[in-house]
Amino acid sequence: MKDNKKIIFGFVGQMASGKDTAGDYLEEKYHGKNFSFSDMLGNVLTRYHLDLNRDNYIKISEAMREYFGDDIMSKTMAEDIKKDSHEVISISNVRRPEDVKYLSDLPGFVLVSISADPKIRYERLTHRGEKSDDNTKTYEEFLEDHKRSTEVTIADIASQATKSIDNNGTLEELHEQLDKLVSKYK
Fold this sequence. Notes:
By secondary structure, the chain is an alpha/beta fold.
C-alpha cells in the first residue's frame, strides 16, 4: 500500500446484498480486518443471552441510539478503526448519516454501494440463515423489513457512494470487482 496508509471500504446496501461477504473476502485475501455494526450489536445480544433475530438486532440498535445518541456506534467504530493496524479495512452495514459523518473523516475511507435485485437478495437471506428468523421469512416479510428503522436510510447513503458494485452475479464476479477496487486504491 502507498506509504502504509489504510484503505477503508465502507459498504452500504440493502439486506443480503453482499456487504459481509465482501468484507470477509477482503479480510481473507488481503489479510485485512472487517468491522461490522451487526457484530457490535450481536455481541450485546449474546452477552445477555438473547436470540440473534432481526427484531432483537433492531431493538438493541434503537435503544442504544435513543439513550446514548444516534452517533454512539459510529463513534465507537471510528475509534476502533483508528487503533487498528491492518492496511485493508472494510466496514459492513454503513447505513446511517452518522455512520458516514464519522467514518468519512478517516483517512483512506471510500464509501462503496453494493446492490442486488430483491429476489436474489431474498434467496441469499433465506439460505444463509445469518439471523435466527431468516430461514422462515416469507418474501412479503422480507420486503416489509425494508421499511424498518435500520433500512430506511440505506438508499440515501448509497447515493453518496463514490464506488458501486453490482452483486447480481456469481461469487467469483463479486471477488473480481473487489480485487479491482483494492487495486485502484493501492
